[in-house]
Write a structure and sequence with these properties.
- By secondary structure, the protein is of the alpha/beta class.
- The chain has a domain of 144 residues: 3-Layer(aba) Sandwich (Rossmann fold).
- The protein has nine helices and seven strands; from the N terminus they run ααβαβαααβαβαββαβ.
- The chain has a five-stranded parallel β-sheet, with helices on both faces. A two-stranded antiparallel ribbon has the order 5-6.
- Helix 4 crosses helix 5 and helix 6 runs parallel beside helix 7.
- The longest helix has 24 residues.
- The termini are far apart.
- InterPro entries: Adenyl_kin_sub (IPR006259), Adenylat/UMP-CMP_kin (IPR000850), Adenylat_kinase_CS (IPR033690), Adenylate_kinase_lid-dom (IPR007862), P-loop_NTPase (IPR027417).
- Catalyzes the reversible transfer of the terminal phosphate group between ATP and AMP. Plays an important role in cellular energy homeostasis and in adenine nucleotide metabolism.
- Monomer.
Length: 230
């Protein structure tokens, strides 16, 4: 009974306009087809910019490995403690840790219509584990979007990038500045710049991407008929 009472109080605290907006969103989403997408590309290629747009259009959940790991680091969870050292150096976190959080995330109610995998799988081992996870669910990837971009243009993109943490909206001081510097356009909340968005860490991340993640793209695409290059 205590649980029901607490849930009732929480509902009463929500503004009517917010409840109606959520109801309308769910009604719209009911008619959307299920989609399971993989976004592959180097850091700064545009995955984080496009993901919120596509997520809202098709009622998908956006599963960003980087965002999940950063949240774990900020919360100082056991996973976060293990991941922090590797992330600070621009190295990849172990496959077992990443696979575990992604498998758990796919079970969330908000992922019922499907998902966008952003930054996962990053290694061939992770791709094989993804196949296992999807097979258990009787599902498969619908499309792989490859964000192909030359390394030479990425440094300017990365070092000028600012993020709204709760929504994932991204801005750029030159290419897509917010209306008010340092502030999210929609909420007025402060933007942040990730600690790993600097030139030194970028070079390390690009090296890891070319060695470990590019082969994943060809591995997944080989199994799909639907493949789109962006």
């Amino acid at each position: 009974m205590a649980t029901s009472s607490a849930a009732s109080v929480d509902m009463e605290d929500i503004q009517t306009v917010d409840l109606m907006s959520e109801l309308l969103r769910r009604m719209k989403c009911a008619s959307k087809p299920d989609k399971r997408l993989v976004f592959i590309g180097p850091p700064g290629s545009g995955k984080g910019t496009q993901s919120p747009v596509i997520k809202d259009e098709f009622c998908l959940c956006h599963l960003s490995t980087g965002d999940m790991l950063r949240a774990a680091v900020a919360a100082k969870t056991p996973l976060g403690v293990k991941a922090k050292e590797a992330m600070d150096k621009g190295e990849l976190v172990s496959d077992d840790l990443v696979v575990g959080i992604m498998d758990e995330a796919m079970n969330r109610p908000k992922c019922q219509k499907g998902f966008i995998l952003d930054g996962f799988p990053r290694t061939v081992t992770q791709a094989e584990k993804l196949d296992e996870m999807l097979n258990r669910r009787g599902a498969q990837i619908d499309k792989v979007l490859n964000f192909a971009i030359d390394d030479s243009v990425l440094e300017e993109r990365i070092t000028g990038r600012w993020i709204h943490p709760s929504s994932g909206r991204s801005y750029h001081t030159k290419f897509a500045p917010p209306k008010v510097p340092g502030v999210d356009d929609l909420t007025g909340e402060p933007l942040i710049q990730r600690k790993d968005d600097n030139a030194d860490v970028l070079r390390s991340r690009l090296d890891a991407f070319h060695k470990q993640t590019q082969p994943v793209c060809f591995l997944i695409v080989h199994e799909l008929e639907d493949y789109q290059r962006i």
